[in-house]
Design brief:
The complex is a heterodimer of chains A (about 400) and B (about 80).
Chain A: H1 19-30, E1 41-46, E2 49-52, E3 55-59, H2 72-85, H3 100-113, E4 117-121, H4 124-135, E5 141-145, H5 150-158, E6 162-166, H6 171-180, E7 187-192, E8 194-195, E9 200-201, H7 204-213, E10 217-221, H8 236-239, E11 248-252, E12 262-266, H9 274-277, H10 279-282, H11 289-302, H12 306-326, E13 339-344, H13 347-360, E14 362-363, E15 365-367, E16 377-382, H14 389-406
Chain B: H1 3-14, H2 38-52, H3 58-61, H4 67-78
Helix pairs in contact in B: 1-2, 1-4
The chains are: A alpha/beta (about 400), B mainly alpha (about 80).
Chain lengths: ~400, ~80
């Protein structure tokens, strides 16, 4: 006899897989530390300052590298587009979601990179997800750096290609794997110009040469270099003189450009077909008219931003040296980008240091596994061209006091 | 190379990664019994790939949980 009805059956809690993370979070917050992942900016005053918990805070963790978010021309373009085109497109790029502004921002990208084709996605995440999953299919091989961004990994997972990672920035490990791929298989090498966790750059010149010698196409994510690395701000590949060897450059509007959106630029003669076959491009609504208008204006201004670029590098070098002199352990021995990663001994002291800095009036990013390499806890600082030399000096003092209070230096 | 020879060479590669000196059998699992985290797995896979001059893609790794399964996979990949 069995009188058990379906309602009596024990249901499996699908959330039990998150128990370990829930416990880590609970024990961290039980120490009384402010939750580093639920900060609210109550008012944003400028690219470098905001009001957080009622106090004025210097922003040092925004990726707003070129400080374009409050540029008067950018703001004016956005307001005009709101008036002329409305608040949103309510449609896919391939149906009713391509306005004049979408074409204009793609033209701005083609001019910025000197490339034949540009395709704009609704986010940078979708650009990697869409391009990688669409071009590398069944039987093809993707060879990628193990420290690649989540959007690259997710693009690999969504496609049907064989995925072969190699040790971070290890030229020999990459070459060995390329040489072992069966003859005749399609190959895509995926690299980043700047790796955002430690702020280090890739040896693209060597890696791209080897990729090409082995018959691979090359995709480089330049999200964290656009606007200030390379003679024209086109990124690390341009800086190392190999941009013409890159088949696909992936980028974003949510960092130096100062709004939201993602893109791919390419010289591939068949590139335009991507608009019909790339699902993360087709099956989502396009960016609002105000967003593409601000992006186009910002991109065109970034073509002539030499003075800002110089000042951003000064800021990066100054802060890197100051933090090194104070005794902090940094992600790179020399400043290689506008990201300076301060390595924390563990998550608990990382969270304490993050909170001590916030009390001083400084916001940085707290980064923890699995986003970070080798299980590290990092305080990630990203500098802005609009940070003044005085602000950088103030930031240094804040780090010194907080570091001593927490016992890290 | 036959299965036994491959098994012996894999055992040698495992040695420096087996920090707790766990006795290895065909059913020993890398994540469960050896308690390797994803970073250790990555380094170990690279060592195996270099030892046998093969590629074990992430897709293939998903199917390999135990020492025995790894021996089978390497035997197949060696052709």
């Amino acid at each position: 006899m069995n009188d058990m009805t379906p309602t009596d059956m024990q249901e499996t809690d699908l959330f039990s897989k998150f128990d370990a993370l829930i416990e880590t979070r609970r024990s961290l917050l039980a120490t009384g530390v402010t939750d580093p992942f639920s900060l609210v900016m109550e008012k944003v005053l400028s690219p470098t300052t905001a009001i957080c918990s009622g106090r004025e805070t210097i922003l040092l963790g925004t990726y707003n590298y070129m400080g374009m978010t409050f540029d008067p021309d950018v703001i004016a373009a956005g307001k005009q587009a709101l008036d002329d085109f409305g608040s949103g497109t309510t449609g896919s790029r391939v149906l009713n979601g391509t306005y004049a502004g979408h074409r204009a921002v793609e033209q701005a990208l083609k001019d910025f990179y000197g490339m034949d084709h540009a395709m704009v996605f609704s986010t940078g995440y979708q650009a990697n997800l869409g391009i990688i999953s669409t071009i590398a299919g069944k039987g093809d091989y993707i060879v990628l750096d193990i420290d690649s961004h989540a959007s690259i990994w997710d693009g690999c997972k969504m496609g049907d290609a064989e995925v072969v990672p190699f040790k971070h920035n290890d030229i020999e490990a990459m070459e060995k794997r390329l040489k072992r791929i069966p003859e005749g298989a399609g190959k895509l090498v995926v690299l980043e110009g700047v790796y955002s966790m430690l702020g280090d750059i890739a040896p693209l010149k060597e890696m791209i040469r080897i990729a090409k010698e082995n018959g691979a196409m090359v995709l480089v994510d330049e999200a964290h270099s656009m606007g200030f690395i390379g003679p024209n701000g086109r990124g690390v590949a341009e800086d190392q003189g190999v941009l013409d060897q890159v088949d696909f450059v992936i980028g974003t509007f949510s960092k130096s450009v100062g709004t939201v959106g993602g893109f791919c630029v390419s010289n591939h003669p068949k590139f335009e077909i991507m608009r019909l076959v790339c699902r993360p491009y087709v099956f989502t609504a396009s960016l609002p008219p105000s967003v593409v208008a601000t992006a186009a204006t910002s991109i065109r201004k970034l073509m002539h931003a030499g003075a800002k670029r110089t000042h951003l590098w000064e800021n990066s070098r100054t802060l890197h040296k100051a933090l090194t002199d104070l005794g902090f352990k940094l992600g790179t021995a020399e400043p290689q980008s506008a990201i300076i990663a301060v390595i924390m001994p563990d998550l608990e002291r990382g969270a304490m240091m993050w909170e001590a800095l916030l009390r001083e009036g400084l916001y940085v990013n707290l980064a923890r596994p699995p986003a970070t390499p080798a299980g590290m806890t990092l305080l990630r600082c990203s500098l802005c061209a609009e940070h003044t030399a005085e602000q950088v000096a103030i930031i240094t003092g804040m780090f010194e006091r907080a570091g001593k209070a927490v016992g890290i230096i | 190379m036959d299965r036994a020879a491959i098994a012996a060479r894999i055992a040698e590669v495992i040695e420096p990664f087996n920090k707790n000196g766990i006795a290895i059998t065909e059913t020993t699992s890398f994540a469960g019994d050896l308690e390797w985290d994803s970073l250790t797995v990555m380094d170990f896979v690279a060592a195996i790939e270099d030892e046998f001059d093969i590629i074990i893609s992430m897709n293939q790794q998903a199917e390999i949980e135990t020492y025995g399964q790894l021996i089978d996979a390497v035997t197949t990949l060696q052709g």
